[in-house]
């Protein structure tokens, strides 16, 4: 005998011996109990071993829980659904297969069914019967026949076993059957451990593993948002594996298990006290309302009885596993406690025809079921006539309650088909179809059992079983999985009470690849359909995270997330990145809305309206200038630079519309370039004007030479060059820092779309150059503030610069303090730019428009200008007896003259140079007189040099010296008198208005005068008198002369202004005709000689010396009659005569002065 077979034999003998000893011991205990009064009849023995044995060509073993487990006896009372009904389902299916000619033709299947009493030890003992067929010689090995041969026992070979129901019993039996390669198919064992084929290679089942059941249960828990649950499980492989699967699924879903309570299961029955303790532990936390129960229907029934004793009806939601799902035993007498329970049952259909078959059974006629009598007695609570006494029917005999043999167990008598009988049917059919496939493979067309099938091993049959596929009697297709499990399909049941008081399991959903449940059909109780919550701590509110009290607990406290944080998960808050804020639920970060100035906003409408007004005003003023382009005021204003300034003002006003546009790459580029460009155009034009005036006056202090680059063309080129520098800077910025629109977040909740130049500072780089121009322009405006009052252009430019400076000083703090408000900030810069342009427009051009529009009579080519200095050396009023000391004092007090036409300071040297030239002419006359005695002339020059009494003076303050100086020894001087046509009513008034003047004696020799005056010689080319008349024909009206503010003479008549040329002609050596002397010229033209510049002359290098004749009528006669001024000799005055004034009167100066005067 091979060693393996020998080992198997020894093990089998040991098992049989142990089984026999245990059975005998239990029978002895039962007898002893009877002797103490447990039974009325002391001769009753319990339990009685029974077996269902039906002959067949191929025999299938079967093991069922015909009796329940008991803590007093080896086997308890008979079980109807999971016991007798399950066993009868196997018989019913075998009958159906034997009657089907298409399956195993001419081959019948027999059965050998045993009772495990829901105990793993009893099940293992009973399983020995299944392997005896493989050990036929063992039975008589100790005996010999008469011929000496070993006797054999004819046991039918078992080809496979259907069973067991509980996982713990199936594990024990599977360990035994695998030694004999006997295939086993279970119908209710769901432990995941049985799927391990290395341990249980011959085990298969028609139900799914508890791994899928745990998923279905936890899906239900998640559906109702139960987060804190308890588990009650049997202390067996089934319960332990179920708990392990539940914990894994619960941890994955964030569901916590508060208590996991177990009760005994394997070889003993849990006592009532055990379940009472379980109920007490469950009540230790009020908020835990959901309890999952892993166990059999007997365990569930005991738990419901304990719940009833604890009076907890309606407190708990029971979730049942497939071990007791849809069974009636847990609810018998405890319907109120079980109401609302949700159970999980492997998906099965009722067996058609089985109800009729079971109703036809009767102990009197159905002899193959040895437990049918016990079922009858338990179901009808009576004693079947002639049955043996048991611990469960003896009291019926004492009260003479005998069963009615004519009734049957059906729906009217409380029968209900067990919902899991389909799995028993599928197990039998799996064997039948596998054997049929074997027959077709080995026996070919041979009918009946062939020799190959008789020698069929369990390993070969297992391969056919794992590959079997058939359609069951319920119409569902069945096929084993790769590990021999049934398909994972479950039915969800809800134990409900109907309105008529009937309790039943109601299908409410299913589970296959996922949970599919109709929540509206699930009802907790009849009077309260909604299910209670089950939790340890209440769910946190919006934006609150959970902080666990300890790592092993699912109880927590809620902590609000900080501002601008979101809830990443239940236990973590995370801050949103810059530019994002949490949503209302604080579950995700949302982008902050980017704001920019809308055209419909009042902050945009106001600056746009102001800009439009500025554009219209600029257009009107520009139109006036263009229409009057040839008038003296427009010409004198410098048309070229004025047009550049107009363009800059236009640009500033239009920048408002660029600044309030939605930021984009193009708009940002326009802003970055445009603002600096506009200011550069304005400030370069103003800077060129102020610089030109400052250079001319500064040059005049040093020499009479004309400054460079002061012509209109030069000034325009300089302006464009300065603007070009700004364009170059802007181009460099555009390439080095390309403008883009980007978000800016002054605060976490506020976002605004701005240009990058505002953020990175490149905007200020673009404004640095215009700011430098503005500073220089302001500097030159301040520097030229003390030039004569007639220079209104410089004064207005200075006022413009000061006002703009104030505007920008107010703008800077507003701009930087409103960085968070893009609307206010943009409106502020728009107003600042527009106001800068408006101030420039108002201060520079409005005075000129005032003259052009309201005072056109002043818009003439020649205009006298007020002298800035009130006292001059050459302007001394008083008597002719003024002393030399007084003259010297006057000369010291006033070092400069004023140009009679422009009011500009004229150096003393220039005035003396005119005298020098006259003396040269005098010498020439004397020489001619000596030669011919004819043509002797006396030349006298009149220099109107008193600021107060010069023509056009704004005041008439008398000189304190009040006299004229006469050089003794000179010829008699002549006084000029007003023209005869002038009528003067009051002589005293005339005397006051026309005070006597100082006379200049020019009859002295040139050498003497040079010596006394110490005047450097001036070339003839430096002073070029002109003999042309500079009057303009066709001018109907001439400007009126305004009298001095303190003069008693009031102008009541118009003045008529005629310009004549002072002639300084002399006769040559061979001159012919009469020669006009200077005295005669002066005598013919009574008014004093004044210097004037033609404003239309493009050549600024020539000064025309003209005389002005002013005819004054009535009281408007205020022209000072002036005669030749005779210089006092140096020796009398005591002061040198070469003292020079501050500024040289040059042709360029006169031109600029006339341009700048309005």
UniProtKB/TrEMBL annotation:
N-terminal signal peptide: 1-24
Membrane topology, as annotated: Multi-pass membrane protein
Xref: CDD domains: 7tmC_mGluRs, PBP1_mGluR
Domain of life of the source: Eukaryota
Residues that span the membrane, as ranges: 603-629, 641-661, 673-694, 715-741, 761-782, 794-816, 822-846
Basic and acidic residues biased stretches: 1001-1013
One GO cellular component term noted in the UniProt record for this chain: plasma membrane
PROSITE patterns: G_PROTEIN_RECEP_F3_3, G_PROTEIN_RECEP_F3_4
Subcellular location(s) per record: Cell membrane
Residue ranges constituting the G-protein coupled receptors family 3 profile domain according to the UniProt record: 603-868
InterPro entries (alphabetical): ANF_lig-bd_rcpt, GPCR_3, GPCR_3_9-Cys_dom, GPCR_3_9-Cys_sf, GPCR_3_C, GPCR_3_CS, GPCR_3_mtglu_rcpt, mGluR
Extent of Polar residues compositional bias: 951-962
Name recorded for this polypeptide: GRM3 protein
Organism: Branchiostoma lanceolatum (Common lancelet)
């Amino acid at each position: 005998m091979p060693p393996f077979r020998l080992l198997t034999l020894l093990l089998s003998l040991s098992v049989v011996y142990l089984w026999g000893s245990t059975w005998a011991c239990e029978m002895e205990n039962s007898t002893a109990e009877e002797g103490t009064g447990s039974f009325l009849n002391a001769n009753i023995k319990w339990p009685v071993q029974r077996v269902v044995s039906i002959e067949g060509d191929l025999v299938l073993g079967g093991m069922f829980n015909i009796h329940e487990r008991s803590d007093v006896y080896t086997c308890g009372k008979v079980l109807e659904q999971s016991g007798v009904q399950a066993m009868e389902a196997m018989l019913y299916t075998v009958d159906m297969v034997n009657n089907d000619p298409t399956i195993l033709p001419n081959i019948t299947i027999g059965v050998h069914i045993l009772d495990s009493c829901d105990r793993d030890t009893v099940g293992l003992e009973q399983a020995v019967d299944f392997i005896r067929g493989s050990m036929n010689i063992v039975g008589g090995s100790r005996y010999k026949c008469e011929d000496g041969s070993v006797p054999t026992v004819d046991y039918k070979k078992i080809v496979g076993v259907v069973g067991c129901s509980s996982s713990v019993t199936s594990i024990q039996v599977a360990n035994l059957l695998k030694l004999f390669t006997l295939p086993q198919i279970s119908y209710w064992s769901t432990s995941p451990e049985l799927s391990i084929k290395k341990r249980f290679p011959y085990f298969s089942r028609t139900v799914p593993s508890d791994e899928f059941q745990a998923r279905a249960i936890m899906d239900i828990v998640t559906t109702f948002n139960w987060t804190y649950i308890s588990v009650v499980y049997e202390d067996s492989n089934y319960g332990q594996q179920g708990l392990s699967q539940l914990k894994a699924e619960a941890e994955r879903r964030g569901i916590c298990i508060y208590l996991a309570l177990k009760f005994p299961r394997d070889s003993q029955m849990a006592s009532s006290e055990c379940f009472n303790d379980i109920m007490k532990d469950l009540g230790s936390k009020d908020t835990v309302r959901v309890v999952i129960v892993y166990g059999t229907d007997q365990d569930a029934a005991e738990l419901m009885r304990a719940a009833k004793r604890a009076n907890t009806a309606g407190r708990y939601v029971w979730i049942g596993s497939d071990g007791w799902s849809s069974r009636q035993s847990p609810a018998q007498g405890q319907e109120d406690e079980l109401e609302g329970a949700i159970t999980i049952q492997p998906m099965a259909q009722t067996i058609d025809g089985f109800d009729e078959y079971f109703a036809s059974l009767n102990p009197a006629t159905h002899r193959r079921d040895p437990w049918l009598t016990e079922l009858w007695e338990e179901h009808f609570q009576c004693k079947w006539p002639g049955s043996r006494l048991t611990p469960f029917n003896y009291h019926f005999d004492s009260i003479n309650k005998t069963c009615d043999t004519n009734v049957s167990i059906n729906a009217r008598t409380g029968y209900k088909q067990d919902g899991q009988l389909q799995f028993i049917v599928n197990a039998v059919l799996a064997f039948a179809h596998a054997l049929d496939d074997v027959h077709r493979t080995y026996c070919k067309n041979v009918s009946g059992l062939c020799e190959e099938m008789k020698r069929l091993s369990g390993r070969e049959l297992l391969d056919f079983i794992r590959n079997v596929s058939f359609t069951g009697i319920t119409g569902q297709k069945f096929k084993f999985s790769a590990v021999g499990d049934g398909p994972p399909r479950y039915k969800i049941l809800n134990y409900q009470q109907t309105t008529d008081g009937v309790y039943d399991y109601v299908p409410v959903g299913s589970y296959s690849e996922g949970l599919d449940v109709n929540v509206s059909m699930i009802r907790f109780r009849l009077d309260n359909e909604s299910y209670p919550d089950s939790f340890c701590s209440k769910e946190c509110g919006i934006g609150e995270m959970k902080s666990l009290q300890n790592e092993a607990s699912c109880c927590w406290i809620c902590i609000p997330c900080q501002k601008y944080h979101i809830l990443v998960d239940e236990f973590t808050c995370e801050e949103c990145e810059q530019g994002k804020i949490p949503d209302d639920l604080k579950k995700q970060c949302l982008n902050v809305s980017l704001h920019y100035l809308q055209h419909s906003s009042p902050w945009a409408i106001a600056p746009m309206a102001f800009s439009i007004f500025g554009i219209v005003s600029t257009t009107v003023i520009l139109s006036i200038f263009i229409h009057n382009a040839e008038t003296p005021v427009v010409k004198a204003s410098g048309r070229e630079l004025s047009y550049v300034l107009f363009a800059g003002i236009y640009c500033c006003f239009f920048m408002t519309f660029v600044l309030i546009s939605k930021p984009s790459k193009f708009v940002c580029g326009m802003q970055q370039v445009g603002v600096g460009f506009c200011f550069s155009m304005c400030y370069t034009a103003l800077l060129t004007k102020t610089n030109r005036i400052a250079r001319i006056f500064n040059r005049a202090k040093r020499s009479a030479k004309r400054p460079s680059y002061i012509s209109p063309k030069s000034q325009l080129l300089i302006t464009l060059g300065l603007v070009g520098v700004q364009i170059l800077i802007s181009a460099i910025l555009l390439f080095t820092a390309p403008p883009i629109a980007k978000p800016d977040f002054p605060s976490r909740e506020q976002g605004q779309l701005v240009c990058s130049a505002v953020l990175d500072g490149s905007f200020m780089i673009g404004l640095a150059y215009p700011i430098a121009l503005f500073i220089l322009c302001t500097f030159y405006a301040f520097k030229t503030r003390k030039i004569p009052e007639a220079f209104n252009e410089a004064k207005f430019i200075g006022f413009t610069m000061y006002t703009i400076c104030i505007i920008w000083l107010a703008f800077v703090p507003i701009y930087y303090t409103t960085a968070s408000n893009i609307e206010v900030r943009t409106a502020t810069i728009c107003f600042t730019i527009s106001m800068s342009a408006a101030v420039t427009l108002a201060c520079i051009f409005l005075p000129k428009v005032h003259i052009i529009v309201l005072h056109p009579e002043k818009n003439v080519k020649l205009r006298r200008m007020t002298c800035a200095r009130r006292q001059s050396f050459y302007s001394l009023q008083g008597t002719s007896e003024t002393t030399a000391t007084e003259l010297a004092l006057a000369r010291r007090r006033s070092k400069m003259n004023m140009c009679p036409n422009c009011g500009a300071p004229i150096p003393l040297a220039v005035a003396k140079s005119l005298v020098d030239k006259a003396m040269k002419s005098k010498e020439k006359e004397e020489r001619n007189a000596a030669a011919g005695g004819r043509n002797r002339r006396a030349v006298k020059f009149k220099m109107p040099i008193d600021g107060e009494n010069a023509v056009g003076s704004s005041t008439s303050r008398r000189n304190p010296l009040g006299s004229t100086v006469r050089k003794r020894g000179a010829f008699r001087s002549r006084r000029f008198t007003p023209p005869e046509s002038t009528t003067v009513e009051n002589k005293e008034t005339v005397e006051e208005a026309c005070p006597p003047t100082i006379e200049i004696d020019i009859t002295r020799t040139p050498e003497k005068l040079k010596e006394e005056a110490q005047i450097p010689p001036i070339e003839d080319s430096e002073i070029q008198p002109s003999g042309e008349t500079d009057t303009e024909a066709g001018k109907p009206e001439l400007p009126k002369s305004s009298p001095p503010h303190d003069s008693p003479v009031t102008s009541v008549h118009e003045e008529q202004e005629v310009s004549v040329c002072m002639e300084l002609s002399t006769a040559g050596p061979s001159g012919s005709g009469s020669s006009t002397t200077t005295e005669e010229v002066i005598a013919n033209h009574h008014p004093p000689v004044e210097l004037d510049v033609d404003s239309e002359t493009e050549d600024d290098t020539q000064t025309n010396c003209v005389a002005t004749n002013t005819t004054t009528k009535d009281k408007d006669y205020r022209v000072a009659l002036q005669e030749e001024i005779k210089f006092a000799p140096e020796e009398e005055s005591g002061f040198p005569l070469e003292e020079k004034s501050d500024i040289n009167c040059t042709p360029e100066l006169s031109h600029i002065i006339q341009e700048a005067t309005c």
